UniProtKB/TrEMBL annotation:
Entry superkingdom: Bacteria
Name recorded for this polypeptide: Trypsin-like serine protease
Alphabetized InterPro entries for the sequence: Glutamyl_endopeptidase, Peptidase_S1_PA, Peptidase_S1_PA_chymotrypsin, Trypsin_dom, TRYPSIN_HIS
Gene Ontology biological process terms in this record: proteolysis
Molecular functions (GO terms): serine-type endopeptidase activity
Species name: Pseudomonas helleri
Annotated Peptidase S1 domain residues: 107-305
Keyword Thylakoid: no
Family matches, as Pfam families: Trypsin
Keyword line: Hydrolase, Protease, Signal
PANTHER family, A to Z: SERINE PROTEASE (PTHR15462)
Amino acid sequence: MGLLSREIMRTTAALALTTIVTPLLAVEGVPHATGSPVQDRATVLGYWTDDLMKQAEIADGMEQSPGEVITENGDLLGYAPVPMPYVNSKMARVNGVLFIRQPDGSHGHCSASVINSDSKSLIVTAAHCVMGTENKWKELMMFVPAYNGSAKEGERTPLGRWPVKQAFVPSSVPEGQTIDNDIAVARLYLLLPAQPIGPEESVEQKVGGGLKPKVNESGLFGVTRIVGYPGIDRYSGMQQLCDSFTSVVEGTTGLGAKNCCAFSGNSGGPIVLSSSQELEVVAVVHNNVSHARLRASTFNPVYQAADAGH
C-alpha cells in the first residue's frame, strides 16, 4: 500500500492552474530513467503560501501498532519528536517536507531528504510522491528542509523553500509502482541570493551536506532510523523519528522495519543507518511496515539523470 496524502482542499478559482498533460519523458543518455516536466521556479514559489503548506501537512492513513517500540521516549506508534531547534542537528536539517499538488487539485505532502551529489542539489523520496495514479506527475513540488509546522507563521521554513526543478523515477514505474521500484530523485533549483548581487546557493551548502546513498539489493542492517513528517494532527507538522530493527520482506526486495508504523506523510522519508558516522540512507518509506531499497537498477539511473541536470 503506497502512502498517499488524502485530499485536503480543492484549489479556489483564483489559485487554480491549468493542468498540462505531458507525455512521459525518457532521459537522453540515461537508460531506465523517466523525467517529469521541468517546473517553473517562480510559479512554485508564488503558489505555496504559509496557509497552503499548513493545510498540506494533514494526511490520513492507517495507524497500526508496531512491534516492540525501541525508540527512546517513543509513543505507541514508535515515534519521538526530533529535538528542536532543527538547525542544530544535521539529521534534522537534511530532512524535510516535500509539498505537492495532486493532479486533481488537492494538496498533500511527503517526506524527503537531501543526498550527497556532484550538483549538491538532489533529494531522494518515493516514486509515488512525485507520480500519482494514471502516471500523472504531481505538480508544484517544493522541498522545505527542517520544516517546523509548530512554529509561528513566517518561521516554519528556517532553511528556505526549494522548488523542484525536475523529478525522476525508474522507467518501470509507469508500468506499475511496487516496493521494488518506489524510488525517486529530484533536482532542486538553486536558492536565489537575498541581495540582487551574490551567488546562488545549493541545498547542500545551505543545510551542511546530505545523506550518503548506500546502494543495496538485500540483507539486513542493525538499528535503522526513520525520519519524516507523519501527517496526523497529533504531531502538528513537526519532524519525528523512529528506530527499528530490519527484516526481510518476503517475495520482494523490500526492507522491513517492524518497530515503526509509518503512515501517510512519512512516505519518501529516509531509512538511515543509525550506527553510520556518515549518515547513510539505505531505503525510503514505501508503506506502513516495508520500504523501498536504494537498488542499483532503480536508484542509480534516476540519481545519474537528476545529477546531470537533464
